[in-house]
Specification:
79% helix; mainly alpha; 226 residues; Methane Monooxygenase Hydroxylase, Chain G, domain 1; globular
């Protein structure tokens, strides 16, 4: 019986190409957070909802690929990477898209405006978080070559450098997030209490996206170390 799965043909004898396709969908999902917050900044509800829909679409696409990988990864399959390690890596990738969906969903459910004190800081924060995910996707794009070289040699060294760069970006998002929270609390008297809670949660969620991206890099670094 012929399968209708869009990624079934990518498997062959290896699940690594589908892992890269999954990360591509994850990165596309997070990329939509920039127009999402640009629309919020401009007070454009129509564009905000359109960006939200795109985030949900790519998150669903990532979920579909994730489920396909899980269903087509038999326990007896011989691979250069332990099955559990591969599934953990997949889950870490998926957490990135899940969190982007949480961010968009919250903006959809509660109509909010960016506080004046945060307006000049929130968009650079979202963009730098996207930079972390973009770098993470670049790292995962090296996965098939890593496998071919046994996680050693120039490919391994190159990925180590890329993971270091990813960690540096994530560190910057940590600093930006702390600055945003500090600014939020400095101006909390100018805001409604629920708005303060909302924006604190959003700042944390956006930072979590970069954290999960770094987690993906760290998991790949562990595979190289083994």
């Amino acid at each position: 019986m012929r399968t209708t799965s869009p990624i079934a043909g990518l498997f062959g004898k290896s699940p690594f190409r589908p892992m890269q396709e999954h990360m591509k969908a994850v990165a596309e999902c997070v990329a939509q957070t920039v127009p999402l917050f640009e629309a919020l900044h401009d007070g454009d509800r129509e564009k905000l909802l359109a960006a939200k829909d795109e985030i949900f679409k790519f998150e669903q696409q990532a979920d579909d690929i994730k489920n396909e990988i899980r269903s087509r990864l038999p326990k007896g399959l011989f691979m250069p990477v332990d099955r559990r390690d591969l599934l953990d890596l997949l889950n870490a990738q998926d957490s990135i898209a899940d969190t982007a969906q949480d961010v968009a969903g919250l903006l959809d459910l509660r109509r909010m405006e960016i506080p004046k004190a945060l307006k000049g800081k929130i968009l650079p924060y979202v963009q730098r978080t996207l930079d972390a995910v973009t770098k993470c996707a670049e790292v995962i794009n090296e996965l098939d070559e890593l496998v071919e070289t046994g996680f050693r040699g120039r490919a391994g060294d190159r990925v180590e450098e890329m993971v270091d760069a990813l960690s540096a970006i994530e560190g910057e998002t940590d600093d930006m997030g702390m600055d945003l929270v500090r600014t939020l609390f400095e101006h909390e008297d100018e805001m409604k209490p629920l708005s303060v809670v909302f924006w604190y949660e959003q700042i944390q969620h956006i930072g979590d996206i970069a954290d999960y991206a770094e987690d993906v890099g760290d998991r790949l670094r562990l595979l190289i170390a083994r």
